[in-house]
Amino acid sequence: xxxxxVAVANGIEILKEMARRGHDIDxxxxxxxxxWAPANDFFEEVARIRAVRRLWYKIMKxxxxxxxxxxxxxxxxxxxxxxxxxxxxxxxxxxxxxxxALAAVLxxxxxxxxxxxxxxxxIPSVEASLLSLRTQQIxxxxxxxxxxxxxxxxxxxxxxxxxxxxxxxxxEVDEIERMGGIVEVVASGWLHHKVxxxxxxxxxMIADGEIKVVGRNYFRDPDxxxxxxxxxxxxxxxxxxxxxxxxxxxxxxxxxxASNCLNALKxxxxxxxxxxxxxxxxxxxxxxxGEMRQAFTEVFGLWKPPIFA
Length: 309
Hints:
- The protein has helices at 2-20, 25-29, 42-63, 92-107, 126-141, 156-178, 182-187, 190-208, 237-252, 255-271, 276-284, 289-300; strands at 34-36, 76-79, 111-113.
- The protein is mostly helical.
- A three-stranded parallel beta sheet has the order 1-2-3.
- It is globular, with a radius of gyration of 23 Å.
């Protein structure tokens, strides 16, 4: 719920700021997109996506008074849960990711990315990536679930769960706004504290067996020998090649122009201007991301969340 409340609160803050700058709400809303990561509770994940889409429609229609139907849609992408993948019995992750993907589709996601079974170890291998792609293609082409809009709509359980989750999301959004909005809850450390506590609690529940993870703490077979899996191997030459490429870039670019663009970016940061145009000029002058980041750091410093006991 917090994942969605934070994203909705962030969307509200963006819309308020863009309206303050004189931009049309419909023009802005059509360009917003959201990103979700489903977990293992199948029906809850279906209901969660349904709930937040419905809530966003109401916010756009009644709070921001959007006029275009498209402005009231919640355009959302789902990437299946990487934190749910286990190093123990990694092939089980294929099944986990497939259920996550199906929940996303049934909930109404517009686009989807399926994490690969070996991502508990490293970035995915070619084989694992293909299997993730095939998971999506089988859902789309063979199950026919994409041929029906909101196929679980009307189910007593799904509708009750959707209503409950929508209320909980809205309650958290209201709490964030009472504390000053998304920027304030990040700056104060409240959000980091809340997320950290949730992660700690969930890990304790897994360790204690309250949350079942097949192959790790449930139906675990210590004598089971799993087949070896091929894990992506990093080419140690890549780092050297990238350093050489960077050196060539700095050697052949117009360094005076790059320096002037960087100075203009720093001055914009100091004035509090919108830095997008200055960032684009830096990119056109072949200023690197690292150099731009250093410019931001010199002006704003590095922010660290407050530490809570």
